[in-house]
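Chain particulars:
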Amino acid sequence: MTAETKIDNMTDPMTEEQPQSGIMDRNVALEVVRVTEAAALAASKLVGMGDKEAADQAAVDAMRHAFNTLHMRGRVVIGEGERDEAPMLYIGEEVGDGKGPKIDIALDPLEGTEITAKGGNNAMAVVALTDEGGFLNAPDTYMDKIAIGPGVDPNILDLDAPIGDVLAKLAKEKGGRVDELMVCILDRPRHEHIMKAVREAGARITLIGDGDVSAVIATTDPETGIDLYVGQGGAPEGVLAAAALQCTGGAMLGRLVFRNDEEKARAEKWGITDLDMIYKTDDLAKGDNVMFAATGVTDGTMLRGVRRFAGGAKTSSLVMRSKSGTIRRIEATHDFTRKTWIKSI
């Protein structure tokens, strides 16, 4: 059988019986896409409406409702913020039906709130799952990141080496020239020195306004033309990106960047003692049993956005699982008359 048709030894997720040792089974991977679909559908009604807070809240509400239909004892470890700051899907919140395996959850109900509000590209709903204790409890601060797709020696990555040196090694790994490489960077003033160095090395650049999870994932698909992602973005998004890379065979490095003592104290609260540590993919998301799902809200490099029509919509999703290495693309048609619980659709 192929990876797509292989059936693992598993337990029906809708029964009281739990999988051996409480480990996630493959059914969870197929069920969790309903969560990202719900969030994407809810947010899609607000694309281009200029209200990023309303779009984010719609995605949060729908995602939480969908999570609570799943057979799991889920705990949010990367979420919308701490309990006092986020009424729902806050860090530490429990979701699921309270039965089945214990699962840690990293999520972003709407990656690209500003993108959604402006009707731009690459907004999506994202969820990653792993066994209890599998994700870094990353504080809400920045992270220096550098990432590549599969088939490349991860040892070429270096957060402190000149970017030109990294690009030379990457070109050699790929059997090409530096001027054939495409580097993806968030369009921010703090990255001007990186852009200058990349151009001096001879590589090309594609700038994005937001959405660095999708940008990291894009390095894993040759069709996107993106060879390397580099720059400073959100630390929670770094964990989500690492989860996707575990499923695809890519690699990244990350280092937390603290803007003030309050952020350092928050990191220590979450058990981070080495504030200068450089994290590898395995440090951010342990690789033995990670699941990742994303559904496009607006069109992007990896996924089409929600296509609405009278009485329904179509969605495009990715579902990935590290244990099997399976990557599924799921196109779904939704009948809104049968999804009445999503009030905002």
